[in-house]
Write a structure and sequence with these properties.
Layout (H helix, E strand, L loop, with lengths): L3 H20 L2 H21 L5 H23 L18 H20 L2 H12 L4 H8 L3 H30 L1
Helix pairs in contact: 1-2, 1-3, 2-3, 3-4, 3-5, 4-7, 5-7, 6-7
């Protein structure tokens, strides 16, 4: 029998932080959090789980990226005003606003990446996972992780280039 209370107690906070960080919206994060644990339950019924933490974090990341894609299809950028940004307390208001705008654009761009590229990028760049950790969880080689990460970065550069040009002009 699976100790769900223990699993949620150990892994719940980390999964929540991950999905909220990726989505930036409390309602979406709550739904994705629940979907993540339901998907883990379904997985556990089919096969034995070696690492609940790795499974839950991977599922949470994948489901959050899926939700970003759904948002992309449902809304144009101008309709995405429900974005919740939690800024660092010491920054100036305009810096928080800029960081919030960049975070929002990154979420939109992540939603445009292929699923595996978005997952690898999120796990590495946003969560700080190492290539070998990602490879183990995604059941791919570390070389494949590097390739996916390289492609994700290149595509994100393309998608975010207009924003970065404006940012450079503002600074000049």
């Amino acid at each position: 029998m699976i100790d769900w209370e223990g699993i949620v107690a150990r892994e719940g906070a980390g999964v929540w932080r991950r999905v909220y960080r990726l989505l930036g919206n409390r309602a979406d994060a709550e739904e994705v959090f629940q979907e993540t644990f339901l998907a883990a339950l379904s997985f556990a019924r089919r096969q034995e789980v070696e690492s609940w933490g790795a499974l839950l974090h991977r599922l949470g990341t994948a489901k959050a990226v899926d939700r970003l894609r759904q948002r992309q299809r449902r809304h144009s950028r101008s309709e995405m005003v429900d974005f919740e940004f939690v800024g660092g307390g010491e920054a100036e208001p305009y810096q928080n606003a800029q960081a919030g705008e960049l975070s929002q654009r990154l979420r939109v761009a992540l939603g445009q990446l292929p699923q595996r590229q978005a997952e690898v990028f999120a796990l590495h760049a946003l969560e700080g996972w190492k290539h070998d950790e990602i490879a183990d969880v995604m059941q791919i080689t570390t070389d494949a992780v590097g390739v996916l990460l390289h492609r994700a970065r290149a595509r994100l550069r393309e998608l975010l280039a207009p924003v970065m040009r404006v940012e450079r002009q503002v600074r000049s």
